[in-house]
Specification:
Structural class: alpha/beta
Largest sheet: 8 strands, mixed
Distance between the termini: 59 Å
CATH architecture of one domain: Alpha-Beta Complex
Number of strands: 8
Helix content: 40-55%
Order of helices and strands: HEHEHEHEEHEHEHEHHHHH
Strand content: 5-15%
CATH class of one domain: Alpha Beta
Radius of gyration: 22 Å
Number of helices: 12
Length: 383
């Protein structure tokens, strides 16, 4: 009886993990083809007033380039403003912003540090714009990206549009590039079916009328909470793979791991605020949210349950299959850890897989410990 119970735990855990990464994308492609409702982008529209919101903290190395990049976009000058929302920067960020004499560039400084989401919450309501574009300081946009993004808003059912971000990687970051492309494909299919349930945080937009403040201390999860609020209000959230931006990456393993732990904590915080989307009556957004996000966020626990149940089956001298699986899993684990002392290219994928899920697992406990502040420290990048 015990062996049967352990087998059930093992195969259910394996199924839930595999479902998120393989079965769901296949189902999504099928459902998008047969049940999707297309939205057509239009270019012959009266261009709406657009406000860029750029939350920053100590971005003196990149802020000049960021502003110049937005100013270079192919969009009517009189319908564009840029709001630099500083979370009490202590470097030369304010000074650099003030060197621009263009009236479209505005500097807003928080009274006290509160993080990216508090900058968004306090700055956004007072803005006079039709469309809000949220972007990060290190995200650089292609010249036509804004026009492509805005074209979707010609459809009154569209409440938000997420842009595609291509990361500037060195050859050692190929795993992240593959994962990003995988995510982009899913977002594209989700928006064909109904809505993508998250955006890449460096470049997405919504109608001003559908904006709702994010809960205090929201932690690295505005790119989930804001799109989900758009869907809550009955609008669609579209992903546009042609509205392209670029971001640099970091080669520092420690910094990248810390960033992933922070994101993991934000994911579980978002889960606690999005419980209404666990209701199947939400329709396709429910299906996409549970399949894409919930199973993905809890995947470290599925792996742990699978590993422990398989270990117990080996101890109890269960079928030979579980012995083979267990020792293979141990080999993968050893190879993953070996990368820290012997960074060979062929074992990097194992390390990437392990570190991604370990960071998510640790993020869960950071969330349980209580997120007292959403203020962030700047991540050193390849700039």
């Amino acid at each position: 009886m015990l062996i049967f119970f352990l087998k059930c735990i093992f195969w259910i855990s394996v199924f839930l993990f595999v479902y998120s990464y393989t079965i769901y994308p296949l189902l999504l492609a099928i459902f998008a083809k047969f049940f999707g409702k297309s939205v057509k982008r239009k270019y012959d529209i009266e261009f709406p007033f657009v406000a860029f919101i750029v939350p920053v903290y100590n971005e003196e190395k990149i802020i000049k380039q960021k502003i110049e990049n937005i100013l270079s976009l192919d969009y009517p000058n009189d319908r564009l403003t840029i709001w630099i929302g500083s979370d009490c920067s202590t470097d030369k960020t304010h000074e650099i912003v003030n060197t621009f004499k263009d009236s479209r560039i505005k500097l807003w400084i928080a009274e006290k540090r509160g993080g990216k989401t508090e900058v968004i919450n306090k700055l956004t309501p007072s803005l006079n714009a039709d469309i809000l574009v949220f972007t990060d300081a290190n995200t650089m946009h292609k010249k036509d990206s804004l026009k492509k993004m805005i074209g979707w808003f010609a459809d009154s059912k569209v409440g938000g549009v997420a842009g595609h971000i291509e990361h500037v990687f060195n050859r050692n970051n190929i795993e992240e590039k593959i994962y990003r492309n995988f995510e982009s494909l899913q977002k594209s299919l989700e928006s064909k079916l109904h809505s993508t349930i998250s955006a890449f945080g460096g470049f997405y937009s919504i109608r001003k009328e559908v904006f709702s403040s994010i809960k205090y201390n929201a932690y690295s999860n505005d790119d989930v909470l804001i799109p989900m609020n758009v869907i809550r209000k009955g609008f669609r959230m579209i992903f546009d793979k042609e509205a392209v931006s670029y971001e640099d990456s970091t080669d520092n393993i420690k910094n990248e791991f810390s960033r992933r732990v922070r994101i993991g904590a934000g994911n579980f915080q978002a889960f606690s605020w999005l419980l209404d989307f666990l209701n199947p009556l939400k329709g396709w957004p429910w299906f996409c949210y549970v399949s894409h996000k919930v199973t993905r966020w809890f995947s470290p626990f599925f792996l742990i349950l699978a590993f422990l149940s398989c270990f117990l089956l080996v101890v109890l001298n269960g079928p030979i299959l579980y012995h083979v699986i267990f020792y293979l899993a141990c080999l993968i684990l050893i190879l993953s850890l070996l990368y820290l002392v012997l960074p060979l290219f062929f074992i990097r994928p194992f390390f990437y897989f392990l570190s991604m899920h370990l960071a998510l697992f640790l993020g869960f406990f950071r969330f349980l410990g209580g997120i007292k502040s959403a203020a962030w420290m700047r991540t050193e990048r390849n700039v």
